[in-house]
Design goal:
By secondary structure, this protein is mainly alpha-helical. The protein folds into two domains: 89 residues, Rna Polymerase Sigma Factor, Chain: A (Orthogonal Bundle), CATH 1.10.1740; 69 residues, Winged helix-like DNA-binding domain superfamily/Winged helix DNA-binding domain (Arc Repressor Mutant, subunit A, Orthogonal Bundle), CATH 1.10.10.10. It is 67% helix and 0% strand. The radius of gyration is 29 Å and the shape is elongated.
């Protein structure tokens, strides 16, 4: 673009940038890149991710440039940036969710198969001990320790006060610990 030709003179009368010129889109990027980066940075709290999201925002904007509401380029770009940041925050990569098959360690760092088998056997034995507990501890411990539910969720599901759930969980853990110690002394954990 010539130094005398400004972005504002190239815009259509309604405030949209011309959809067919790359120069006008370049000007849009220059004009709003700090805004888009700031929106992304505020949401994800990570500068590297914010830079990537800024690029994704402008790529998406370029791809869908014909759908920009007339006169609302700034707001439209900010909304795209917010949506990209939300998608990033909800993504499996961001949450570091392990997908099936991703949990395998490289062979050099993986524990020996024997120790893996023992660990699985012990975990199975502990789960069986929890399931064999007497009520009211069994249901509370199964939900908390095996199903990983919070005491508030358990209280709601069982119709008991949260304080009661905390007490039953504490007593159930104590009983489990005592049983594990007894079995360890006798050499019969699994």
């Amino acid at each position: 673009m010539s130094p005398g030709g400004s972005y504002h003179r190239q815009r259509s009368a309604a405030g949209r940038w011309p959809a067919t010129t790359n120069e006008s889109f370049d000007q849009l990027v220059i004009q709003y890149e700090r805004l888009v980066y700031t929106v992304c940075r505020q949401m994800v709290q990570d500068s590297a991710a914010a830079e990537d999201l800024t690029q994704e925002t402008f790529l998406s904007a370029y791809t869908h440039r014909d759908s920009c509401p007339e006169g609302y380029a700034k707001q439209w770009l900010a909304r795209i940036a917010v949506n990209k940041a939300k998608d990033y925050l909800q993504s499996a990569y961001r949450r570091r969710t392990v997908l099936p098959g991703d949990d395998a360690l490289p062979l050099a760092t993986a524990p020996p198969l024997e120790s893996q088998a023992i660990a699985r056997s012990e975990a199975s034995a502990i789960a069986n001990m929890i399931r064999a507990m007497k009520e009211p501890y069994r249901r509370v411990c199964v939900m908390a320790l095996l199903e990983e539910k919070k005491p508030e969720e358990i209280a709601l599901a069982l119709g008991r006060p949260v304080k009661t759930i905390h007490t039953q969980l504490s007593r159930g853990k104590r009983l489990l610990r005592e049983e594990l110690e007894r079995r360890e002394r006798n050499g019969t954990i699994s």
